[in-house]
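Before a colleague's protein record goes any further, I have to sign it off. What it holds is a sequence and that sequence's fold in token form. My question to you is simply how this chain folds and whether the tokens agree. Thanks in advance; the entry in question is below:
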Amino acid sequence: MNTPTTDKELLENDNTAAVQMWEALNRLQNNDDFKKVILEGYFKNKAIDGVSLLAQDYVVENNLRTRVMESLIAISQLEDYFMTIEALGNIPPEEDEG
């Protein structure tokens, strides 16, 4: 027979999952391949390239700015997802003990 899950247990499970995601993200961010492909290649270089494209005459004249902006938004969304993982999973020890 299953006992009902309490609000405290649900919160603890959510916190555990958030911390596990944060730990996994930290492992990724310390991986040289991840740094090269995602942090440098995607977040930095692709974003800079996209911003540069916005001012090019060809892009402006052919109404391609929307495509470029969608690419920049995708970069921003992934970065925001990582920041959310960081915010939810980086629980100070005094708050984690409950």
In short: The mean pLDDT is 89.
